[in-house]
Write a structure and sequence with these properties.
The complex is a heterodimer.
Chain A: H1 2-7, H2 12-49, H3 53-60, H4 63-70
Chain B: H1 7-39, H2 53-80, H3 83-115, H4 123-144, H5 148-162, H6 165-175, H7 195-234
Helix pairs in contact in B: 1-7, 2-3, 2-5, 2-7, 3-4, 3-7, 4-5, 4-6
Classes of the chains: A mainly alpha, B mainly alpha.
Chain lengths: 75, 235
């Protein structure tokens, strides 16, 4: 059973390499996108920390800013 | 209608649904992989190599679907002068690009046992390469042009121009003699694939669609935070 799944009548190398390439592409794209998101969130939090109290109050009026500040990442 | 497309609202929804989409994607992909690699039968002609279809076909479908959506949204940018549509398009492009690469590479791997060659300049494959080039130019244009308005215009034109290639991809196997087989699944006529293969194909397509949704949600939020970062500078 396991041999059949692994070797697939000699087609295993083609099938497994196609599936592995797909999964590796998915993981790479997910990690790159995730890293970009975290980087921008960190940049936002750092910039927010530099604002004076009046500007902070204005910025906090927007829900979206609060959401960005609420957590660096949800996943 | 465009109230629905308000960036702030989309951001708030995105932040909440992303983890559920990831969870759902992992479940659907696991079922899909089990079906595709273990439970589905081998083909009487292609034997086990037919299993490559379960990654090759959904990747091709979704890359074409995403590019068509980008072109449709780009038309909306010109008609409704809504910049958020271009932000949605920009966030869709990376997953479409990756799916296009996956379709070409898995197709090349499938070609070795089936055709005896990994590459042929046949109409279907060539038109998919052209689609990849359009994706590449589209993504590079966003990086090259600093002026956001200029970038929106140029990328929209690229997408609208590039969508001409989509019907060429679809009908290339009918218009020209190609190595690539004609479509086995047709919305308007009866499909020639048995349900034991059609079900895993549908599950894998759903998994791929969920993955592109996941990347879109993350990318859209990234782009929006970039805009908000610029907004903080202007305060």
């Amino acid at each position: 059973m396991i041999n059949e799944i692994l070797f697939m009548n000699g087609y295993g190398q083609y099938v497994w390499s196609a599936f592995l390439f797909t999964l590796l592409s998915f993981v790479s794209l997910f990690l790159i996108t995730k890293l970009q998101l975290v980087k921008e969130q960190k940049k936002f939090i750092a910039k927010f920390g530099l604002l004076n109290s009046q500007k902070t109050r204005v910025a906090k009026l927007q829900n979206i800013n609060k959401e960005i500040l609420s957590g660096t990442s949800k996943i | 209608m465009f109230k629905f497309f308000e960036p702030n609202k989309i951001f708030l929804i995105n932040s909440k649904v992303t983890k559920y989409v990831l969870f759902l994607f992992i479940i659907v992909l696991s079922i899909g992989l089990l079906e595709a690699l273990v439970l589905s039968p081998e083909d009487y002609k292609q034997s086990h190599s037919v299993r490559i279809m379960y990654v090759h076909v959904p990747a091709a479908w979704i890359s074409i679907g995403i590019f068509s959506s980008i072109a449709f949204l780009s038309m909306g940018v010109f008609i409704f002068k809504n910049k958020n549509l271009s932000l949605i398009s920009k966030s869709l492009a990376p997953s479409g690009f990756i799916f296009n690469i996956v379709a070409l590479v898995t197709g090349a791997i499938w070609g070795i046992p089936t055709w005896g060659t990994w590459w042929a300049w046949d109409a279907r494959i060539t038109s998919m390469v052209i689609l990849l080039l359009f994706y590449l130019i589209y993504l590079l244009s966003w990086r090259i042009f600093d002026n956001n308005d200029k970038a929106i215009k140029i990328t929209s034109i690229i997408a609208i121009f590039g969508v001409i290639n989509v019907p060429i991809i679809k009908f290339s196997v009918d218009w020209w003699t190609t190595l690539h087989q004609p479509s086995s699944i047709n919305i308007l006529s009866k499909t020639s694939i048995h349900s034991s293969m059609l079900i895993p194909l549908a599950i894998m397509t759903a998994a791929f669609a969920l993955f592109s949704l996941l990347i879109f949600l993350m990318k859209y939020n990234t782009e929006l935070i970039k805009i908000k970062n610029k907004g903080l500078d202007r305060l």
